[in-house]
Amino acid sequence: MLPHLDRKLLRDLKRLKGQVAAVSIVMACGLAMMITTRSLIASLDGTRADYYESNRFADVFGSLKRAPNHLAARLAALPGVAGVQTDIAGQVTLDLPGIDEPASGQVRSLPDFGEPELNRLFLRRGRWLDPGTRRELLVGEAFAEANGLNPGDTLALIMNGRRQQFQIAGIVLSPEYIFESRPGAALPDNRTYGIFWMTYKEVATAWDLYGAFNHFSLKLAPGANAAPVIAAAEELFKPYGGAGTYGRKDHPSHIRVTDEIRVLTILSIGFPTIFLGVAAFMTNAVLSRLLALQREQIAILKAFGFSNGQIVGHYLKFAAVIGLVGTTLGGVAGLFLGRWMVRLYDLFFRFPELAFRLDRNAVAIAFAVGLLAVVAGVLGSVRKAAKLPPAEAMRPEPPANYRPSFIEHPALVRLFSHSFRIAVRNIERRPVQALFTVAGLSLATALLILPNTLKAGIANILDYQWDLVQRQDLNLGFSEPASTRTMHELERLPGVLHVEPARSTAVRVHFRGKDRQIGLRSLESVSLHSRAVDGHGREITPGEDGLVVSAKLAEVLGAHIGDELVLESLAGKRNIRPVRLTGLADDFTGIAAYMNRQAINRFLGEGDIITGASFTLDMNHRGDFLRAIKEIPRISWISIKETMRTSFRNTTAQMMGMLTTLYLTMAVIVAFGVIYNNARISLAERARELATLRVVGMTQREVSAVIVTELTILVLLAVPLGLLLGTGFATLIIHSVNTETVRLPLVFTPYTYTFALIVVAVASTVSALVVLRKLKHLDLIGALKAPE
């Protein structure tokens, strides 16, 4: 048989099941977010670590023009180096049947015999390359899936200007290309860019590099520092056209996964904190008002010998039940959502198997945090009630001082109905309770701002990045720098309305002990195509010798306009030059620097050289243009704006859209829960008062108006504060999740705020209708019975 207090607990839970359910669901939303995001972090981080270890992912990477194979021994002899892998990397173009635009990619060499020591491949389908065979290759899975390629199919590759046919032996994955995208591009385009592997002899023959290499990877000894190894490798390869050496932390694929983990880490803290804060407010409201209604019951319990500790424990059990229900629901929802969302990462990342890993620590933390939230919300009220002497507690709570409210001034009293004046007076006489209610409603309103702000940011990128900043239709790059005379050839291509030259090169930018390896791109003084714009959408130019950098890059370096940065070329003569920072570009993918094209060529010590071009096309001749450039061997890659926009929409935007929809759904649930909970509690604690009003002659409609008016006033007070809080939350979180690879602009639209207002209005209306329905069936005699 249950103890007396436990039977009372069950009765209280049954009577307040609506409020308990509302608080538990709000708590479950926060805990589900915590468990989901923490488990996704464990899944990504754990899977990546296992993949790196099992496939011997390198710690240091470098490129150069050409070095003899015997230098591999000198690399291996560097202090701190435990393993060396040299290979050849070359850019290729492809002619894919059924696709207008030419595809491009990178070919990497594999040892003619045996496995590579580092960066080993994972065979997904097909077979490995047979030693001694020719005209076979392995294809990266992302490109193969995007183009429906299978083992046994053939591909036509243009390697170093020569067209050759190859048969696909297998479909593979590589730890170097978990995130597979064109070098320098923050977004993938798996349909037109891929990674391919061939035997060393095949690749060396195509690029006339037999007995040499142009790329290397190093594995560090345990405890070794990457910085001195990078410095020694760069010094070693200076005479061989070294094009930059970098550590794993700067590897593009590694950075992309790391950034995703960082975003999830921030979300795993930000959203649950707000949800659990709302839950704590709601729990406090439920139990503090329950205790006020049960003063006499507490006195009777104490008179019958129950100790203060037993009474405190009884009400803490009530809170614990809420915490347990919320944690259980949150755990189940977090497990389900985590398993669903981990599959979405296949849109971005290529692992042999990205299995969902439940973060058990997150479950334990979620339970502890959930329980702490509800206990913290009620502990003060419980202790206060338990300390009441029985004789004092037996007396009803002293009536409030019903002084005339400020609207009952003789000059104003006729302007308001009895119901409105009663509602205002009730709020006035319980200011602390009203304050807590407004705070809870404000947080619920604030939660509705962030999801739609994320959506607005995504929509802004789709329009801003590809219309305001990149106004061209297409970009292309050459396999080798070319003279500006090449522009005449490009202008004669079919469908070309306007063409602009482009110059780019790899550099390392230094400022006060910090540095980043980035792409330096050209800006024309008067351009109809690519341009740099600031945070207000105004075009900025670097001038004759100035430098414009991504605002994010300036933030990372700690640089401001007017500072002097140092540029180090990673190609050719490795020139170093100080340059003045003249502007900050508000871009949203990757980080880059921009200079005048002539200034870049002067910095590199070269003539009037270009490395690519951008085009405005007559779309009626788009197909003719794409077919024509397939016949130009020197073109190594192309990037079509609409293709990149579609890629962003189908990957980054789709993922963020799903996350946003999830957050928005939970925010709507919280808003309904908070408002419904407040309305139900208000009815429960005022049942006697409302019954009295009915008995003294007020109609059902007038009494209902008191409840509705009070709820409306509190909502009207809370909404402006909630919109302000939501703006602050959105600003903080969006700035926190912006990374070096992808960033979202902070965009607040009328729709963002209108949606929040509509949800609050609908939630208030529905809650009011539910409460009015219960008020209609209120037992007047039972409510008016005075406790003996």
Please explain how this structure is put together:
There is one protein chain. The chain is α+β, with helices and mostly antiparallel strands. It has 24 helices and 23 strands. The strands form five sheets. It has a six-stranded mixed beta barrel with strand order 3-4-9-6-8-7. Helix 14 runs antiparallel to helix 20 (652-685). It is elongated and about 100 Å long.
Q: Label the overall shape.
A: elongated
Q: What does the main sheet amount to?
A: 6 strands, mixed, barrel
CA distance, first residue to last residue: 28 Å
Q: What is the overall pLDDT average?
A: 81
CA radius of gyration? 34 Å
Count every helix, treating DSSP H or I runs of 4 or more residues as helices: 24
Low-confidence stretches: none
Strand content is: 15-25%
Quaternary status: single chain
How is the largest sheet built, in terms of strand order?
A: 3-4-9-6-8-7
Structural class: alpha+beta
Short description:
With 788 residues, this protein is of the alpha+beta class. The strands form five sheets. The protein has a six-stranded mixed beta barrel with strand order 3-4-9-6-8-7. The protein has a six-stranded mixed beta barrel with strand order 14-15-21-18-20-19.
List the helices and strands and how they pair.
Blueprint (H helix, E strand, L loop, with lengths): L3 H12 L1 H38 L5 E9 L2 H6 L4 E7 L1 E6 L8 E8 L11 E5 L9 E5 H6 L7 E6 L2 E12 L19 E7 H7 L5 E9 L5 H12 L7 E3 L4 H42 L1 H9 L4 H37 L15 H27 L3 H5 L23 H12 L1 H17 L1 H21 L4 E10 L2 H6 L4 E7 L1 E8 L2 E10 L8 E2 L5 E2 L6 E4 H7 L6 E6 L6 E10 L6 E5 H8 L4 E9 L4 H8 L5 E6 H10 L1 H34 L1 H9 L4 H38 L12 H27 L3 H5 L4
Parallel strand pairs: 4-9, 6-8, 15-21, 18-20
Antiparallel strand pairs: 1-10, 1-11, 2-10, 3-4, 3-7, 5-8, 6-9, 7-8, 12-22, 12-23, 13-22, 14-15, 14-19, 16-17, 18-21, 19-20
